[in-house]
């Protein structure tokens, strides 16, 4: 009796697995087809995906996705002659949407690196960022080296995690990977981690918004600068148009205006230009 | 779409560790949840409304709020309160046990109430007191009826332990997410995780089926 029951169950599992893969590929084909016809009809609205949990770069304000990246992508798209519709989809789904060409581009503080370039196309860099260490005031952590032997909270899949992987070893037990930086910071405040490593804008914004929590932001020269780019599906013809548009808003002051609005300081446009 | 088995191979040691932790979390949740659930279920059956009130409140809260929220509350609120720092594994065990206890309490209550009133009356007229009747007549019959819904709850518990990934308890989904985060691949980690969970739940339902059959014939 028992043995017979296993066979249908196993075959059911296989059918399920097949169904899943079939679903995945067919739906992406369908929708990419749809996107193409849509483009032909009116070459106007692009679907932009983002992970809106990264204030002030991109976050949700009363249900609306806002932030530096959002203002930036809107300005660039306007310059290039497109309208954009920004959807908050979460971090992992960004790559699924772009890989399946269900979205035209992504803006989400995505660092340009060689690993990602293998699977996706990037625009020219539009933002410079460094990782910084956030730690409670009076902590004995003064540099990245001091993080060894301590628990460090990061956001899963970010360059903060990559920096810690490089420092402590990949998948080291002292690295706690959270869904987003808010949870990582909360973990530190609850005493579960000695520090959080994340992009400077996030860390500084958090420390600025929570002066009562007595936090220090530590810079370490060992952390390299990173550059954010717009992410496109491999082989997309949009990057060329967008690169032109990015350069013209860098030159005409629109970029500086947006940067000042969100960060209150002057951007270093020369560094961005050097990277091109 | 190229499916990369090499990254699954790379993460196998982590997934094995994750699977062991998932099993551990589930067993702890089942054991603690069952003991707590029995007590709460019996508490709810007390005739005195005032005495039953806290048990009702407990069930209302833990059944009425998402486990996801409970895990976050326990992790960031309850555990640091007692230990001074967070501990993901302890928080996961507490949240899973407390949540399961609410459902198990209802299963016990329903099981006991499903036994015909006449059984208790018959036992009492044979000269047994309330306790004896409960112990020798009602509970043995009720227990048999509770096995299928209890098994159901245990399977739910295994699956819901995956929510502990959000507080970085290094179980299956945590490593699945780490894999996705590193390679920007989603099918490899999540299909692998689905397969592991399936194996776990199928094994458990196999054991439960055997137990049910044994109690039926025995």
TrEMBL record, chain A:
Signal peptide start-end: 1-22
Keyword entries, A-Z: Lipoprotein, Palmitate, Signal
One annotated Gene Ontology cellular component of this protein: cell envelope
GO molecular function: ligand-gated monoatomic ion channel activity
Keyword Lipoprotein set for record: yes
Domain spans labelled Ionotropic glutamate receptor C-terminal: 45-265
Localization of this protein: Cell envelope
Residue span, Solute-binding protein family 3/N-terminal domain: 45-266
Family per record: Belongs to the bacterial solute-binding protein 3 family.
PANTHER family (alphabetical): ARGININE-BINDING EXTRACELLULAR PROTEIN ARTP (PTHR35936:SF17), MEMBRANE-BOUND LYTIC MUREIN TRANSGLYCOSYLASE F (PTHR35936)
Protein name per Swiss-Prot or TrEMBL: Polar amino acid transport system substrate-binding protein
UniProtKB/TrEMBL annotation, chain B:
Molecular-function GO terms, alphabetical: transmembrane transporter activity
Transmembrane domains' residue ranges: 20-43, 55-82, 88-108, 154-175, 187-208
GO process annotations (BP): amino acid transport
GO cellular component: ATP-binding cassette (ABC) transporter complex
Domain ABC transmembrane type-1: 19-208
Swiss-Prot/TrEMBL keywords: Amino-acid transport, Cell membrane, Membrane, Transmembrane, Transmembrane helix, Transport
Subcellular location: Cell membrane
Chief location of this protein within or outside the cell: membrane
Bilayer topology annotation: Multi-pass membrane protein
CDD domains tied to this protein: TM_PBP2
Pfam family, one: BPD_transp_1
InterPro entries recorded: AA_ABC_transptr_permease_3TM (IPR010065), ArtM/GltK/GlnP/TcyL/YhdX-like (IPR043429), MetI-like (IPR000515), MetI-like_sf (IPR035906)
Gene3D superfamilies: MetI-like
Keyword ATP-binding: no
UniProt record similarity statement: Belongs to the binding-protein-dependent transport system permease family. HisMQ subfamily.
UniProt protein name: Polar amino acid transport system permease protein
């Amino acid at each position: 009796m028992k043995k017979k029951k296993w066979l249908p169950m196993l075959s059911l599992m296989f059918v399920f697995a097949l169904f899943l893969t079939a679903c995945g590929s067919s739906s992406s084909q369908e929708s990419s087809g749809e996107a193409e016809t849509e483009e032909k009809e009116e070459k106007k609205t692009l679907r932009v995906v983002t992970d809106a949990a990264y204030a002030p770069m991109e976050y949700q304000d009363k249900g609306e996705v806002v932030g530096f990246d959002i203002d930036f992508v809107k300005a660039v798209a306007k310059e290039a002659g497109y309208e954009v519709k920004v959807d908050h989809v979460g971090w992992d789904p960004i790559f699924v949407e772009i890989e399946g060409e269900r979205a035209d581009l992504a803006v989400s503080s995505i660092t340009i690196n060689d690993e990602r370039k293998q699977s996706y196309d990037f625009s020219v860099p539009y933002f410079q960022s460094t990782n910084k260490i956030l730690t409670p005031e009076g902590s004995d952590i003064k540099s990245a080296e001091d993080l060894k032997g301590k628990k460090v909270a990061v956001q899963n899949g970010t360059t903060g995690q990559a920096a810690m992987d490089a420092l402590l070893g990949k998948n080291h037990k002292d690295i706690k990977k959270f869904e987003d930086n808010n949870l990582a910071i909360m973990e530190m405040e609850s005493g579960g981690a000695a520090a959080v490593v994340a992009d400077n804008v996030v860390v500084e914004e958090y420390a600025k918004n929570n002066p009562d929590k007595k936090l220090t932001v530590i810079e370490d020269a060992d952390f390299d600068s990173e550059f954010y780019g717009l992410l496109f599906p491999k082989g997309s013809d949009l990057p060329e148009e967008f690169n032109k548009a990015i350069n013209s808003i860098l030159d005409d002051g629109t970029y500086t205006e947006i940067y000042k609005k969100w960060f209150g300081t002057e951007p270093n446009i020369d560094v961005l230009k050097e990277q091109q | 779409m190229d499916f990369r088995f090499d990254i699954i191979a790379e993460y196998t040691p982590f997934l094995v560790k994750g699977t062991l932790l998932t099993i551990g979390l589930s067993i702890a949740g089942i054991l603690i949840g069952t003991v707590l659930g029995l007590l709460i279920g019996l508490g709810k059956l007390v005739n005195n409304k005032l005495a039953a009130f806290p048990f009702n409140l407990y069930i209302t809260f833990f059944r009425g709020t998402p486990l996801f929220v409970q895990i976050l509350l326990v992790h960031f609120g309850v555990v640091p309160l007692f230990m001074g720092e967070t501990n993901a594994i302890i928080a996961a065990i507490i949240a899973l046990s407390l949540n399961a206890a609410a459902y198990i309490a209802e299963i016990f209550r329903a099981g006991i109430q499903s036994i015909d009133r006449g059984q208790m009356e018959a036992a009492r007229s044979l000269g047994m007191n309330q306790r004896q009747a409960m112990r020798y007549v009602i509970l043995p019959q009720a227990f048999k009826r509770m096995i299928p819904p209890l098994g159901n709850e245990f399977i739910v518990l295994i699956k819901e332990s995956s929510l502990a990934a959000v507080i970085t308890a290094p179980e299956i989904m945590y490593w699945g997410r780490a894999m996705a985060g590193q390679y920007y691949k989603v099918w490899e980690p999540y299909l692998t995780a689905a397969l592991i969970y399936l194996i776990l739940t199928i094994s458990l339902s196999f054991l439960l089926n055997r137990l049910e059959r044994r109690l039926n014939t025995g």
